[in-house]
Specification:
- The chain is built from 14 helices and 14 strands.
- The strands form three sheets. It has a seven-stranded mixed β-sheet, sandwiched between helices. Strands 1-2-3-12 form a four-stranded mixed β-sheet, with helices on one face.
- It folds into two domains: 128 residues, Alpha-Beta Complex (Aspartate Aminotransferase, domain 1); 227 residues, Aspartate Aminotransferase, domain 2.
- The longest helix has 23 residues.
- With 390 residues, the chain is of the alpha/beta class.
- Bound molecules: pyridoxal-5'-phosphate (PLP).
- The site of pyridoxal-5'-phosphate has 14 residues, from helix 5.
Length: 390
């Protein structure tokens, strides 16, 4: 017996419930295909929505920056980690969003856990959609503000909540495109009730920036949010995240966001690759990749509809859930599709609510029409054998 034996019990308990997590190893990438545990498969589980993660423009930009800056940033942003590459990127991201200023963080998780505690604290309140991402939940917990969770997309409940108490400051936070459901928040209505209550509005645009909204600019700025979080590791194809907002807010974050102050800066080459990515996203290449993405999304949703599965045909986001329900059954679906050469990762609680384990299909501009057709054939097989109930 040792003091660490409890982990065996916890892992065994997860295993018994079909909930133990593990990883598969990726050995390479070409387009939407990945070399997974030694075998090429088509991935429908990547957030590389525009297929930019392996674009030659990004690779060349990273190489050139590495020749100048080396590999690591070597210190936090406030010590010597602020290179010309990250400063230029921040200027360009702010211009892209039509916002006053931007600040890059090491990841979306770091942005949310740094930002929220910088906005609210004891005596304040955060209103948070029940399906918000774990990094928002953790940011709320770290802030020590009171957290009021409102029903998914329930503006009425939010409005009543905002009117119901006395707090120093109020913050409303929602994703724009929800990461596990692919639906969109009613941001205009949320912005209206937040403004009426004199509350700050924060929008996490992680799954939208680059891929969705006018010109790929997401939805947060258009809705008039006070602060928007975008990620770089999804449609932009690199790594990291950023906050867009007023210059005084950014100045405040330089002093108060602990995940920025106490963490090593992003590698300069990643910043350079992101600048190359942003040029593509904001230009004709981005527009045409978004058009391909919309076509593939539509192909999946129409195909599901034909199989008798619930699919919101009016949605225009790259995330398409197929709720299986049971944890083990969702994993069995993933295994069956893997046999057919496709990766569609099962998403289980606590990432999603109990009883809603699902296949999360993530579509990319890098997918071809025949690849999506194969996916739909694979799913049809799962419906026929009863693993997915239509
Ligand atoms: C992915 C995601 C994050 C975290 O971003 P990382 O850069 O992966 O840490 C934050 N918020 C939402 C809504 C996300 O989907």
């Amino acid at each position: 017996m040792t003091a660490l034996d409890f982990v065996d019990d916890e892992l065994a308990a997860l295993e018994a419930r079909g909930r133990r997590r593990g990883v598969r190893v990726v050995g390479g990438r070409r387009g939407a295909e990945i070399l997974l545990d030694g075998r090429w498969v088509v991935s429908f589980s990547s957030n590389d929505y525009l297929g930019l993660a392996s674009a030659p423009e990004l690779i060349a930009a990273a190489g050139a920056a590495m020749a100048v800056h080396g590999v690591g940033a070597s210190a936090s942003r406030l010590i010597t980690g602020t290179t010309d590459e990250v400063v230029e990127l921040e200027r360009e991201l702010a211009a892209f969003h039509g916002g006053p200023a931007a600040l890059v963080f090491g990841s979306g998780y770091a942005a949310n856990t740094g930002l929220i505690p910088a906005l609210v604290g004891r005596g304040d309140v955060v209103f948070s959609d029940e399906l918000n991402h774990a990094s928002i939940i953790d940011g709320c917990r770290l802030s020590r503000a009171e957290v009021r969770v409102f029903g998914h997309r329930d503006v009425g409940e939010l409005e009543r909540g905002l009117a119901s108490g006395r707090w120093r400051r109020r913050l409303v936070v929602s994703e724009s495109v929800f990461s596990m459901d692919g639906d969109r928040a009613p941001l205009d209505a949320i912005a209206r009730v937040a403004r009426a209550a004199d509350a700050l509005l924060m929008v996490d645009d992680a799954h939208a920036v680059g891929a969705c909204g006018e010109g790929g600019r997401g939805y947060g700025m258009a809705a008039g949010a006070d602060v928007v979080v975008g990620t770089l590791g999804k449609a932009f194809g690199t790594a990291g995240a950023y906050v867009v907002g007023q210059m005084r807010l950014i100045q405040h974050l330089w002093n108060r966001a602990r995940s920025l102050v106490f963490s090593t800066s992003q590698p300069p080459a990643v910043m350079a690759a992101t600048r190359a990515s942003l040029r593509l996203v904001a230009g004709d290449a981005g527009a045409s990749r978004r058009a391909s993405l919309r076509a593939r999304e539509r192909q999946v949703r129409l195909g599901l509809h034909r199989l008798g599965l619930p699919a919101r045909l009016e949605d225009d986001t790259p995330i398409i859930p197929i709720v299986v329900g049971d944890d083990r059954q969702s994993v069995a679906c993933t295994e069956a599709l893997l046999e057919l050469g496709m990766l569609v990762q099962a998403i289980r609680p606590p990432t999603v609510p109990e009883g809603t384990a699902r296949l999360r299909v993530a579509v990319s501009a890098a997918h071809t029409e025949p690849q999506v057709e194969s996916l739909l054939e694979g799913l049809a097989g799962l419906v026929r054998c009863g693993l997915i109930v239509a």
